[in-house]
Amino acid sequence: MGARARATLLALALSIASLTARAQTPPHDTFTLTTTAPAETRHLNVYKPPGYDTSTDRYPVLYMPDGGLQEDFPHVAKALDEGIRAGEIQPLILVGIENTERRRDMTGPTTVASDKAIAPRVGGSSVFRAFIAKQLIPEIGRRYRVNAHRGIIGESLAGLFSVESFLREPDLFDTVIAISPSLWWNDGSLVREAPALLKNQPQGERHLFLTSADEDNIAPNVAKLADVLKADAPKGLDWIDVPRPEQHHDTIYLASEKFALRRAYSPKKPAVAVAAPAGGHRVLFIGNSLTYVNNLPSAFGSLASASVHVGVDMIARAGASLEDYDHDPVVMHALATGGYTDVILQERGGNATCTPGCEKRMAAFELTDRATVALANDARAAGARVYYLGTWQRASREISEGEVRGERRIAALAGIPLIELSETRRLLMETYPDAAWTHADGEHPGQAMTALMALRTWRAVMGEVPTRTPCVAGALWYHAPNPEGVLHIDMEATPSTCLIDAPMAARLSAAP
After folding, report:
1. Which residues of the chain have pLDDT under 50?
2. Which of 155, 413, 432, 460 has the CB geometry, 3.0–4.6 Å to 253, for a possible disulfide?
3. Handedness of CA 398, 404, 405, 407 (dihedral sign)
């Protein structure tokens, strides 16, 4: 095939791709805006959420560099439209800014020669940001019903511009989504400046979503920024970093946008009751030694009949609290890529206990509360239903009731159902005192307790009373089997150990 024929086929393919993108783009407005700095005409594309034209509501606005119809506007608008209609994303307006000189507008000043060589003009990010702040935002406010919330989404150099805006002009956007941001620019100077710049961040609720692919010049810099945020994030900043090393620079946007949008713009009132999936279940347990001693995930999976497919994974470390999993890259990657239908969060024993008078000491629960809410939001953004699996206290009825009271408070705060254990366990121990409620070490769950957790979790997740006996495939663990990563539970492992007999399983299943 000659060069001209190849060029013709390429042009035809690009034309078809353009028509396909336009056909898939949700209905939107398009207009132009003449600017003075620099003097040029900007093309803008605006997606309005379902119901906009028949309501009087005001909406958040998400600004989008690379927002032309031949750029990233079509797929982001489509992801937004689908998410809003499904109730997974709050309604908002998307403003796509078509590029004129992309590398000029998205980059700040640089002293690196190779940076300067990428385009005839670079370093114009402050001018581009001034256009957005002084001309575009007021114009959108005149044309559309907007509220005070503004966000920005960008990938690669547009991600760099988004992070630079977050750090240098923090009042401009309260929500920032930066996908594989090119933080290598100017030898990574923006990351080095981040600790000082974060000190000038405004107080109040703000959101930052970071992700990166397998890029050796981007992922390390994003990880460095995440480390800075762990140490210096201002109060009120809800931030998340989701490493995606299985993705590439040309796939990360499409792979991340739905999760990012659902995480940054979660519905104001998350639904507690979500319909169970029609197909199989993929369940992730996030917990600690209460979760892995006796292999609770395997006991849970064993309750499935032959006609029900259940895949079970676990992230559990000795002594871990939910606070330890907040911003944890293993958890973030698992949620973003695991396809989980259900996520079970289990706190470290006693962390949630709220005995009478604890209402005066709510500051003591601040970190636990914040981590639980964040993890629940992360799991919901991944499309999963989320549950709070309780723990138990043995000392007295008052302390046991305090455990349940505290767990109900935190579960309600996170908008997720509580799977209660402490009071149920206490009452069952009175009826069946000889059952193995406690491990030989006097601290961890005995086999009857692990069976009870499996049965009650099954009832919550599946919406039915289990009829099978909980058994464990493989070892009855005592030490964490994979403390550094995600453990995929092998339901076919041998030997198989039933934790209790069938009559006892029936009694525990029937417990209210």
Report:
1. 1-23, 271-274
2. 155
3. positive
